[in-house]
Amino acid sequence: MDRLEHLRRNGPSSHAFTFSQRYPPPGELGAPEDMNPERYCAGGS
User: Fold this and answer.
1) Is-above-0.70 flag for pTM?
2) How far apart are CA 35 and CA 17, in angstroms?
3) Please, are residues 31 and 24 in contact by the beta-carbon 8 Å criterion?
4) CA atoms within 13 A on the CB side of 6
């Protein structure tokens, strides 16, 4: 519930996020290299 409250008060961040914005894994700085979901989707090629 803490993260939901943080999201409501401060908007999306790496601490509390929605899936419409990308954030790097915890402990890494910068943008994620490749977060294309196609290789994980059954319909992706």
Assistant:
1) no
2) 15
3) yes
4) 10
